[in-house]
Amino acid sequence: MVLGCSARYNKLEGKRERYLDRAREVSELTIPALLPPEGFTSSTDLYTPYQSVGARGVNNLASKLLMLLLPPNVPFFRLMPDNETSQELNNNPQVKAEVESALSKIEREVMDEIEAQAIRVSVFEALKHLLITGNVLIHLPPTGALKIFPITNYVCRRDPDGKILEIIVKEMVSREEMGGTTPLESQVAVDAQLSNSYSNTDAIPLFTKIIRVEDRYQVYQEIDDVILPDSYGEYPADSLPWMALRMVRVDGEDYGRSFCEEVHGDLKSLEALTQALVEFAAAASKLVFLVRPNATTRKSDLSDANNGDVVTGDVNDVAVLQTNKYNDMRVVLDSVQRIEERLKFVFLLNESIQRKADRVTAEEIRFMAEQLEQSLSGVYSLLSVEFQLPLVSVLIKRMQSKGQIPTLPKGAVRPVIVTGTAALGRGNDLQKLKSFLSDLIQLTGASPQSIQRINTGDLIKRLATGHGIEVEGLVRSEQEMAQLMQQMQQQQMMQTAMVEGVKGAAGPAAKQMIESGGLSQNVE
């Protein structure tokens, strides 16, 4: 018996519960409103954390990831021909230049479409869900803005390779929200009116099911186990507009793990210790005077006295209540500071990379920042496969169907991501080139006797190999050096001939200037 979407959703909910409980614990310590507790309503008060390191860290890391995944004004992908096409283009440089120009224009058109749809706004929210809950579902509808579904609104299954087998999305909608003009919305409104189960004000559960059939995905919607006819659709595997993203992949699990889950212990400890410090500070700030029993100083005189009044009494009769717990709280404060430092490193907060010293160089800060950002290379790798590539594929096919960009030959051109790990790779290549040039500059300062005993060409190749740099096109070959030397000799001979010719035609005064070097410099 084939279960309807509602029954199937309820069955798969059980496997999601442990991920959901863990995500709610982490959300409570970072941004409680992102994943409220079960049963939350608009009249329910959310928990207020005692510390803000978690919220600051999540927002900071989400911003950095957004800039790396979708950099402004710079395409995050390139359209690259396949190997066979590249070989054909290399044989015809003029055609190759025209093809590269056309592909570059298509890249700009796709980036303009991303800007027009304001995708970054929704992606920033999705990244916060990934950092805190580890899972989020993104839908790129044919019209309208990018939709974000938290882990509470969908269930999914994956194969052993991590590819999606089934997704069921649950939305609670009203008839007012479904009163649109699109065919799908009109059909939903009609089916909802035919049902006697819901009133005009009731929220109607709308289920959307995405299931893989061989190498394609089928999508349809249900209300009360009735399939809506106009909702059916079918997509190739590489252009499915539903993307179930994960932050940390775990083999054999349908859902991902969150980034904050890896530091949940530090967040939990920081919350408890910060609460203790705040409560201690509140207790210590309370000012209470103690008066010795049977003292000559009266309590009423003290309580009624204004600032500067004169009161009769003995100073030994009055004392101020103190907690005398400063040393104990100092241990708590030191622990809080150490935990905060660890979390700042994890969340790439700027102050964590600056050494506490009077003089800190800019190069030191730059180096530490690069090291910290490279620690997220694993996150880049997963998001480039599950988010960036599908996003580009969906946008390109939609723009081709609308005639906004020309149709590309199937299999001849493919998008390649150039941000994330690729950007880190380019940064490493730049650093290797700088180190290679630094070594070459040091060779120029060696003694001439040492240089004469060394095969300079072979040394340069070995240095480049040691730095992992391809020498082709960068270091001149022996033939190129011979041609360069020949050209330099020819130029020198031409300059010498010109100087001799000027000497023969010049007078005695001019010859003297030539021999002294003044005119030869002008000639050269």
Report on the structure:
It is built from 17 helices and 13 strands. With 524 residues, the chain is α+β, with helices and mostly antiparallel strands. The chain folds into 3 domains: 298 residues, no CATH class; 40 residues, no CATH class; 45 residues. Strands 4, 5, 6, 7, 8 and 9 form a 6-stranded antiparallel sheet that branches. The protein has a 3-stranded antiparallel sheet with strand order 3-2-10, with helices on one face. It has a two-stranded antiparallel sheet with strand order 1-13. A hairpin with a 7-residue loop joins β2 and β3. 21% of the residues are buried. The C terminus is likely disordered.
Question: What's the arrangement of secondary structure elements?
Answer:
Layout: H1 5-29, H2 53-69, E1 77-81, H3 83-90, H4 93-116, H5 119-133, E2 135-139, E3 147-149, E4 154-158, E5 164-173, H6 183-194, E6 204-213, E7 216-223, E8 226-227, E9 233-236, E10 242-246, H7 264-284, E11 289-291, H8 299-304, E12 318-320, H9 326-346, H10 362-374, H11 377-401, E13 413-417, H12 421-444, H13 448-452, H14 456-466, H15 478-505, H16 508-516, H17 518-523
Antiparallel strand pairs: 1-13, 2-3, 2-10, 4-5, 5-6, 6-7, 7-8, 7-9, 11-12
Helix pairs in contact: 2-5, 7-9
Summarize this structure briefly.
The chain has 524 residues and is an alpha+beta fold.
Properties at a glance:
524 residues; 3 domains; disordered C terminus; alpha+beta; single chain; 3-stranded antiparallel β-sheet; 13 strands; 6-stranded antiparallel β-sheet
